[in-house]
Write a structure and sequence with these properties.
Four copies of one chain form a homotetramer.
Chain A: H1 2-31, E1 40-45, H2 48-58, H3 66-71, E2 76-82, H4 87-97, E3 102-108, E4 121-131, E5 134-146, H5 147-163, H6 169-208
Parallel strand pairs in A: 2-5
Antiparallel strand pairs in A: 1-2, 3-4, 4-5
């Protein structure tokens, strides 16, 4: 276990730092009296059991290695939750502009919804961690999603855990219709958001006149 | 401000303690290898601006007093989020059984949905805080709701803040249809939950045979 | 391990609650514009390895049991650090007056310094933890000490870990003279404290005149 | 206040990030089964009242400005506590090697003890904070000291606050003799540390033989 602990330590450090950094962005919006596109932020290091499952799936040896670090891009994972779908591009842009992370890859499961109904925006980043043995550049995954996307995904995740991905037809159907309901909710909210912004524009014009 | 800070201090202490206590319940379920009916817990002391608004609304004097402590039952507020609607009665029962809080009142806005579409279960509790000047019994509000209820409520709350409660017809309609979508989502999820439990029962029977 | 985790869970919960409660006392002094007798608070659950060592030492079976819970009174441990020796009786009195803990035993290693040079005040308390399976009353140890006492104790502890309690004569002598220096530091500080308080009294008389 | 809050926000962010980063170094030593030269880490943003006092002292205008950011180098402050004096150079070297901070200045109040008796090692660093409005490079101060140095300094600080730096002769003398006692404690501890390391070397040789 000591070997794994050492291997995972920079990932844990990266998650801690990224959480502090992204939560800080939220605080900065609030201090500037702007509504934050970030609602809240969570993070985790992939549990050993999930790493093991993943190595089986990918035909990799289950031991700490550069190969593993290269193949498993979500050992360090951070999740950003937004209130509105339209907040997501804002968050993506803010992340692209940061100097302390390098975006390596982006996967847009919002435009291209997964067949399961899963929606989310994924960014794979390279992040430098200053360790006591020198700098270590690790890969991390940032997931950006609305509260509704997250709500659905967390339920699918726990069902997945039960059924190992092979859902009974009945449950599959329900999950899908739930995904649609979540998606509809997001759409309606988007429309309200536009109206808020229009209302705000109106008031601003008025004030400046 | 010093006077208000002193008045609010036991409420802040109560929120901190209640958060630790309810988060602890979640951890206990996990350690027992049972799925937790509690998904996550948040808490806050009512901001001074909101206390001020409330005194105006209720025709009270805006100053720290026993009257205020008696009339405003949500100065200390804790919120428990559940994955499924059926987790809510479990949480209510667990709270009723605790020796360290006294349930003073319960309001069921899930059975009796508010006209706005608001759904949530509220408990007003009495909670003893041991301060450096002796024990102080304060009132606190615990809100119990699903993630979908919370999702809708947080959006309604920010719109409320914009429109001061007087929504344009268009937005009112959208909020209501969103409330229905959120509610539908919860219902579908409930059905899936039952199937999971049936599935679990089946597996359990099989194992014991 | 699952069995131990379950056994230790209420202790972890107790440590979390006691830390929040004692840190809260500090905050209350600050809000009241009084200097706090509490400088900072730490806590820990006794690591399994130390529990194991203790069972060997006491001739107990190393397994979760009521016997163990009764014999090992410091499985849950909280430490209160004070700036001045004279703050310690104040903290003791505040703890005795709380309704949410029952003081079971007190050991005064400040009046009765251990031969090693160890100084600290220990209180064994009974503390009720509301768990999901009902109330559980556990034992916990609260240690109260000055920063200087703590400084010395933490160094002795790490040496103890190295030498398993059997110190070479040289080191034993040094530790003892260090203990004396730490003690002298506390005494001198106490004298300054009295002068501060006299000065404060003087100023107060002057103001009231 | 809004203006000050915005000015101070990147400093708060820097303190949060630096705390996470330096605490992480401690964790890395532990995971590598090496004794950590870092005992614990604290941090704070300079309170507005202290910033005000400093502007008076330096003849600066009390308002958020680049001038202020340049002149006050300790608006963001982080403190690293060590068990032994000999741990301090190790920490300094680790900080110099990090790529994410630039050391701008170093002040060695351990070799050159202040007349008051104050001992500590100060590093002024430049630290880039990625904000929502782009990167901002701020100055921060890292103080490195032993527990004994910190113990004495925290008491001197609270007396300073009382006496505004002009101590009565009596107290000045006591503070000085306390500083000497603290210093003596550190020296004795250093000697023990060397013996531990010699002991360790001995054991290691033995093992490898």
């Amino acid at each position: 276990m000591g070997q794994w602990e050492r291997f995972l330590q920079p990932y844990k450090q990266a998650v801690d730092e990224l959480k502090i950094k992204l939560k800080g962005m939220r605080a900065q919006f609030e201090k500037s009296n702007e509504t934050s596109p970030i609602e809240f932020v969570t993070g985790r290091v992939k549990p050993l059991a999930s790493i093991y499952d993943k190595t089986l799936e990918k035909g990799l040896v289950f031991e700490p290695s550069d190969m593993l670090a290269h193949e498993l891009q979500d050992i360090a994972g951070v999740r950003v939750m937004c209130q509105f779908v339209d907040d997501i591009p804002t968050v993506i842009e803010l992340l692209r502009q940061r100097n302390d992370i390098i975006v390596v890859e982006e996967r847009d499961y919002i435009t291209n919804v997964k067949v399961s109904g899963y929606r989310s925006y994924h960014m794979i980043i390279e992040y430098p961690v200053a360790t006591i043995h020198g700098e270590k550049r690790i890969l991390a995954e940032i997931q950006i999603r609305t509260l509704a996307m997250n709500f659905w995904a967390s339920i699918e995740h726990s069902l997945n855990y039960k059924y190992k991905g092979i859902f009974p037809e009945e449950i599959k159907n329900r999950l899908q219709s739930a995904a649609e309901a979540a998606s509809r909710l997001d759409e309606e909210m988007s429309l309200i958001r536009e109206e808020i912004q229009e209302a705000q524009k109106y008031f601003t014009e008025y004030k400046e006149a």
